[in-house]
Amino acid sequence: VQVVKHEFHRDQAARQHARRIVKVARRGSIVDRNGAILAHSAPGRSVWADPEAMDDPGAVAKALGKALNLDPAGIVALHRKLAVRGRRFVWIRRHVKPTQADAVMALGLPGVDLRAEHKRYWPHKELAGQLLGMANRDGQGIAGLEKTWEDELSGRSLVLQGYRDARGGLILSGADVAPVVSGNTLVLTLDAQVQHWLETELELARREYDAKTSLGLVLDPRTGDILAMSATPGFNPNAGGRDLEHQR
């Protein structure tokens, strides 16, 4: 054990006890020229689990199913996920409601915990959706300005190296990188009101002439600033991949 299989058991122990904790920085907002918020990130919580810390995955799945309002099929799928051994981290549900997060924590289930995350919102829905693009559930820009300015918007996360003790408690050993730095705010030359007028007129024109799409651009003749830019049909980033085809 100590000599012949030393490396094997050392690696096994590291996988079981070592933990890399990441505290994700809050993503910067996107605003128009007047400070109107076009995209922002709100704090929330997500449920995750450590299947190796559970003696009865079935009972845990049933309890979580009730707290998260899962249907029978969802509970069965969750049971299968928790029953897979050798995995120390699985997502149960991302960005749950506050009441659901509280209900999960009240259960006190072994191997189940919450992680603080930020969820991206676009409060004006379709307004400038084609231009703004979208970010995925991990808060990474994957289209439009969200992707183009990813480095500036994403900020810098905090990485902590820690270990689990015999009871599963976390022991932190310090930070590997600089402290959390929130993302920068991206200020556009767009005017949200002008953008709204442009999108309204473009949609009316598209319907009137039975066109597949319509394009429009409004510039400030004195400075060349882009006050509005749009293409129809619209795209709602909050809908995720369901509306992504419109942007393409």
Low-confidence stretches: 244-248
SSE class: alpha+beta
Average pLDDT, all residues: 85
Q: Tell me the helix content.
A: 25-40%
Given the structure, what is the number of helices? 9
What does this structure look like?
The chain has 248 residues and is of the alpha+beta class. The protein has 9 helices and 12 strands. It has helices spanning 6-17, 57-67, 72-83, 98-107, 129-132, 144-148, 150-154, 192-208, 244-247, and strands spanning 18-23, 30-31, 37-49, 90-96, 112-121, 134-135, 141-143, 158-164, 170-175, 186-187, 214-219, 226-232. Strands 2, 3, 4, 5 and 10 form a 5-stranded mixed sheet that branches. A 3-stranded antiparallel sheet has the order 1-8-9. Strands 6-7 form a two-stranded antiparallel ribbon. Strand 11 and strand 12 form a beta hairpin. Helix 2 packs across helix 3. The protein is elongated and about 75 Å long. The N and C termini lie far apart (58 Å). The model is unreliable at 244-248 (pLDDT under 50).
